[in-house]
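Interim report to the steering committee. The following record documents the input for Lipocalin-like domain-containing protein (118 residues).
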Amino acid sequence: MSFVTEFDDGSTLLPYGDNPQGRIVYAGDGFMSAHLWNPDTHVEGTNSRDDPSYFSNCGEWSIEGTFVRHRVHAATDASWAGQDKLRTMTTVGEFLELTAEEVVFGESKDEVFWFGSA
């Protein structure tokens, strides 16, 4: 799995390090959960709210053409709750690529997630 943030100026950031770990589950009943973490910096017993090396969210999901919509019910970043997050879906070999365009601090960025398909 990889997680890369790409900024408009071409610079990149690896917010979960060189070897991020993660799981995303799309259940048949329309619910999903996603977990991302940096195994190199996570401190056992740390409250996830205070730990930038871990992020999770859960909610409902639906397919809309080449997009998947996540309607977030809960997340480690409480500001995500109640929001819809639209992701472009692409399969690359045995991997699922989810790409999101977000605006952070006035700059556009793309977040790219790769998950091995099941």
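The chain has one domain: 3-108. The committee is asked to note this result when reviewing the revised timeline.
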